[in-house]
């Protein structure tokens, strides 16, 4: 079977994140630093991508001071510890139909993850879209989690956050 490698075009790929709390939600983007995908016999069979945790943007907060304060909090040890862990990594371990299985590493902590993805190849261009739901508490992000703190009331932040991933990759 023919094996093809596709390099992720980070300028044409993006990850949108959504974090929810009792009183609403916040959303933004996070950059894909690099990555590649492998096709075997025309089907996705492996790959990995590196996420730049120092490039988290908040889109729903327009006040510059509040936005900077929130971005600093996301980069802090309460969340991504971006100074110590500037990258997160998703390594694809197996693919069964549209189901992707992999290992996600955030803050040096690795857990298995599974999600569905739509993958299309048109000539030398691959496009992929997926929604990945992550339990932040598995990666030592416990700030205002109801699993670890009591009586948070309306300051509670839900454990799961969503990543809506859109990737464009070119044949190497």
UniProtKB/TrEMBL annotation:
- Name all Lipid/polyisoprenoid-binding YceI-like domain ranges: 5-170
Recorded superkingdom: Bacteria
SMART domains assigned to the protein according to its UniProt record, in alphabetical order: YceI
Q: From which residue to which does the signal peptide run?
A: none
Q: Which InterPro entries match?
A: Lipid/polyisoprenoid-bd_YceI, TTHA0802/YceI-like_sf
Q: Which Pfam families match?
A: YceI
What is the protein name given in its UniProt record?
A: YceI family protein
Source organism per UniProt: Mucilaginibacter calamicampi
């Amino acid at each position: 079977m023919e094996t093809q490698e596709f390099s992720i075009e980070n300028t044409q790929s993006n990850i949108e994140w959504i974090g929810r709390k009792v009183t609403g939600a916040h959303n933004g983007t996070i950059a894909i630093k690099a990555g590649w995908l492998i096709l075997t016999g025309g089907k996705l069979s492996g790959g990995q991508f590196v996420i730049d945790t120092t490039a988290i943007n908040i889109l729903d907060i327009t006040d510059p001071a509040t936005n900077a304060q929130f971005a600093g909090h996301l980069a802090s040890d309460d969340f991504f510890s971006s100074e110590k862990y500037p990258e997160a990594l998703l390594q694809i371990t197996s693919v069964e139909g549209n189901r992707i299985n992999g290992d996600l590493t955030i803050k040096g902590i690795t857990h298995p993850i599974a999600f569905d993805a739509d993958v299309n190849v048109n000539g030398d261009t691959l496009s992929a879209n997926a929604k990945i739901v992550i339990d932040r508490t598995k990666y030592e992000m416990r700030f205002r989690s109801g699993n670890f703190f009591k009586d948070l009331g309306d300051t509670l932040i839900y454990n799961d956050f969503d990543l809506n991933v859109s990737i464009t990759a070119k044949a190497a």
